[in-house]
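User: EthD domain-containing protein, Thauera aromatica K172:
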Amino acid sequence: MPIKLMAASRRRPGLTRAEYQRYLEFYHGTIARRERFKIDSYIQNHVIDGAFGTLGDETHQQVADRDAVVELTFANFPDMLATLEPATPSAASQDGKFFADECNNIIVMAEEEEIPVPSPLPSFNPGLGIVQGVGALKVLHYIMRDDTVYREDYYQYWREAHEEALEKAPYAREQLRRCVANKRCRINDNDGAARKHFKMVDPPVYDLVVSHWYDTMEHAGAFRQYQEALMKNTRKFANWSKSFYLYTKQIVIIRDTEK
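Assistant: Predicted structure for EthD domain-containing protein:
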């Protein structure tokens, strides 16, 4: 079964966001192409903007800023381990200290679930879509599960709240082109290799990261309308003070297929 490894990072001290993103794409990305190991696909999502917590919070409840999220896809868990823990330490694992604040990385090992949307893009949109049916603005929504809710119930409650939010957010319902639920899989509990590779220290745990695609950055308001409707759901399932979302530009580093 395919597995996706999502790593959200922020830039190291002394770097601007532009410097960090250039390094990530052109230098670190080149390293990944040269020592691909078992990577099926490698996507970088460069952060344009985002929001953390709620307007009612007096301060952030954890380290908040993120400058990119990388998505590494593998055919299976052994392939991921072979890439993260090769016989000889990889250049990629040694390179992070030059651009990232590694101890504050957040990883999620996830399985994808495609969520149907009311208005998928019917045909390729030259100059806007990255590939057919996918928009040029990608929003990554990290939703922290409420501690009192079981994981299985949490996914059900989110899906119900998602559908209700789209009904109450007509702009988002019209403009959302694709939606993928990245659900934290059980093997995430065996994350020693990932912790060693990404140099994390006690990262927060996210059971769900939802990817939303829109045509252009100008449609960011559609997601905002949806997100506000989602937070108004009367059923308690998320800790919104520890949740966040990122407006990103998707950049393909490795992908052999047309999807």
